[in-house]
């Protein structure tokens, strides 16, 4: 028997955390061992390091393909490998109880994959695999057969808009840049991804870095840049490693460096590591950071397209924007423009997370209703809880309640309800999430990330946070809601950059849709979702307590007393509502109200 | 400053000068070597490069990646991104503080064994809450799982 066996193990950050490297090692060892009995199996087995395929909640995911027939397994651990090899790889009997279920298929079948298409299928550490799926064909075509103006025209016609948050038409921006008369132009890829709930750019760089590089080559040619930068978060070590490797391989193949594809076009791409500042995702701050300065934004105009890095015309695009380009140039502007909604073309990669069954990375055509994303692809709410809201756009976005569940997800749709697309993070919240707390969480973030250059953002976010903190601690006053609204609008209208302008969105949108929760905190001093500890009373259910003493030991202020094996009690005059007893109890005997 | 330190600094200086690296990269190199940014190192570099120390400090204090104090042997980084927050990161932080007996503004234990840090989203939200212990990623962390992991690292 001359069977071809291919085993692919998910090795994204999620996969590695779940033990992907151990599973991979187990396969290698198992094949080596079985090789004695059946040498052909070993010879034809290949172990791929595939990038993220999006369904991280089921890690470690393993694909076993025997003669081209692929079976996907979920939750695989090293000790399960022996049976997979003996039953499936050698015995040709798939282990049915470990295979993925129907929801794996609904998760994938409802998506439209362009950017994520090759993720999970190709080895991101091998340029040959990218070339095998037509990689660098678009760049070659562009450089050898098209003029820069034709490239810009194609991108304009495709309707592609920036995926980094603003949604500005990419081709138009390139046109502005190319119109400058300059001795030097720069192209920058924004891989800073600072939004605290987003990981799509990371997944693209980890899973298919060449797509992004190819997009940069196309952009560089269109505007005439010979030097490019990738500004990437240092917090993504795996992505940084794979990026370096990909750049090296591309250079060896002659796709970067001098005389690309035999033309006179040169392009050098350098990597700059971010140093942990959210505001550096903003384009003018990012440029300052590449120049080695404090990453503070400046007023626009002049826009970077006219005056950017070292004062030269510069194009900054997001990772996902670049990764779309090879497809657009290969398949044509009309093909791309046919996907999506009236004003938002193509697809969007979304990090679907939070209180949802199928968390992971998805790609949908623009305009898909929220409901379909959450309940079809996402499989609905985790546990038996009720849907409450979905947060989109990260700290710049807002919370969208049940009443807007049919909303189409595109730039206009999200903006119409006071949120935004942002980088594409989508965090689903259920009835146990407190909206005042969520709003405070985002303000804590923006307040600490505010660079301090402009007063409305520096002081405004601080005051907003103080009021929100007061409300969650039971010190809310009559008139606080109105004060929050007024202040939020002022910060929005008078801040220098996008950080300050959008920081009030979480506050404004939660007040708009969940005003009653704010009122409950302020007037009744209650947190309806039972999250804000300071507004809760803790007590022990006497019928459930077995007297194990765990809560007593967890309590740092000795507020709990009781004899061994007898129900314990909390002295509420001593309790500081820290919630430790609630976490410590294994019998659900501690209640909060 | 001893000769070995000076030699190390000289090497960093030469490498960065050859690459025309900016201050951020220089400081990243220093931190990689020494674990944190020492005052005397900044002054050494300031003189060597003829750039005022205030310029270096401007950068050090701006970016959260730079540390001005020595850090513990084990670094416990709790993700405080949105998803980790709603899935219980605040409880994990409270547990770590309690277990390591860290005071209000204290981040490093007295015996220099542990430093507690926060990060905003490490990009593994689907296994939230996430904690990194010395770069090893732990997913779906509970307070008790956290304590167990800390115990493994206690000498
Ligand atoms: C506070 C702030 C943070 C930002 N963070 C990012 C980011 O992490 N990644 C990104 O691509 N764009 C980010 N942006 C948007 C960029 O300023 C810029 O618009 C974008 O990179 C342009 O690329 P695009 O046209 O391809 O979207 C941020 C903007 C602001 C105001
Ligand atoms: S929020 Fe913690 S990993 Fe994303």
Structure description:
- The complex is a heterodimer of chains A (593) and B (155).
- With 593 residues, chain A is of the alpha/beta class.
- Chain A folds into five domains: 5-100, Glutaredoxin; 127-337, Rossmann fold (3-Layer(aba) Sandwich); 347-430, Ubiquitin-like (UB roll), CATH 3.10.20; 435-523, NADH-ubiquinone oxidoreductase 51kDa subunit, iron-sulphur binding domain (de novo design (two linked rop proteins), Up-down Bundle); 537-592, Alpha-Beta Plaits (2-Layer Sandwich), CATH 3.30.70.20.
- Chain A contains 24 helices and 19 strands.
- In chain A, the strands form six sheets. Chain A has a five-stranded mixed sheet.
- In chain A, a hairpin with a 5-residue loop joins β9 and β10 (360-365).
- With 155 residues, chain B is α+β, with helices and mostly antiparallel strands.
- Chain B has two domains: 3-62, no CATH class; 74-153, Glutaredoxin (3-Layer(aba) Sandwich).
- Chain B contains seven helices and four strands, in the order ααααβααβββα.
- Chain B has helices at 3-19, 23-34, 39-49, 53-62, 82-86, 89-99, 143-153, and strands at 74-79, 114-119, 131-133, 136-138.
- In chain B, strands 2-1-3-4 form a four-stranded mixed sheet, with helices on one face.
- In chain B, α1 (3-19) runs antiparallel to α2 and α6 runs parallel beside α7 (143-153).
- Chain B is elongated and about 50 Å long.
- Chain B starts with a helix and ends with a helix.
- The mean pLDDT of chain B is 91.
